[in-house]
From TrEMBL:
Gene3D superfamilies registered for this protein in UniProt: tt1808, chain A
CDD domains: DUF820-like
One Pfam short name: Uma2
SUPFAM superfamilies: Restriction endonuclease-like (SSF52980)
PANTHER family reported for this sequence: SLL1072 PROTEIN (PTHR35400:SF3), SLR1083 PROTEIN (PTHR35400)
Family annotation (InterPro entries): Nuclease_put_TT1808, Restrct_endonuc-II-like, Uma2
Protein name per its UniProtKB record: Putative restriction endonuclease domain-containing protein
Span of domain Putative restriction endonuclease: 18-182
């Protein structure tokens, strides 16, 4: 039997924010933490990574100087018990110092790219992002190369605290909210 690495041996309270921050980057980049429990994920497939990178680049191109775009970045939704997610794309306040933890109040939008290995794991994320107050959430589903991906856009309803549909796009994505963006979705793959 193989022993667990020290970083996976948890106290009854789970992994703390301090213990997470002390992890080596090569470990923290492969995990998410939900209620202190460590979730280890395999690296996404190339198509997933290519689409996320290209969409992030298109979004970054239209951002003003006050917004920044990052892929596969730590997002601290809660400290106790620790809830740390790694959205595929985050659009956030560019004035945030690099050494400061990214939190929901810094984020304008998060995007998750769904792939066969992430569908189950990604089902809880919209509710977590909405509860944290992130105004915009997009879910991108990879389809075949002929039809391209589908982008399901959601906007936080301030009355209910839940996401409401803001539209679904296939073929071309053309929006003005939260950013003016026009993208040929087929070209992303």
């Amino acid at each position: 039997m193989t022993a667990l690495p020290d970083w996976m041996v948890l106290s009854p309270e789970g992994l703390s924010a301090e213990a997470y921050e002390a992890l080596p980057e090569d470990i923290s980049r492969r995990i998410e933490v939900v209620d202190g429990a460590i979730l280890v994920y395999a690296a996404p497939r190339r198509a997933h990574q290519i689409l996320a990178r290209r969409l992030a680049h298109a979004i970054e191109y239209v951002c003003d100087d006050h917004l920044a775009v990052a892929t596969d970045i730590d997002l601290r939704l809660r400290d106790i018990p620790l809830l740390n997610r790694r959205p595929d794309i985050a659009v956030y306040d560019a004035s945030l110092p690099d050494e400061e933890v990214l939190r929901p109040g810094h984020c304008l939008m998060v995007i998750e790219v769904m792939s066969p290995g992430s569908v189950t794991a990604d089902q809880d994320k919209p509710a977590e992002y909405a509860a944290a107050g992130i105004k915009h959430y997009w879910r991108v589903e990879l389809n075949d190369h002929d039809h391209g991906p589908a982008v399901f856009r959601y906007r936080l309803d301030p009355t209910t605290g839940y996401y409401a549909s803001a539209g679904v796009d296939t073929g071309k994505l053309k929006v003005s909210d939260p950013l003016p963006l026009e993208v040929d979705l087929i070209e992303l793959i």
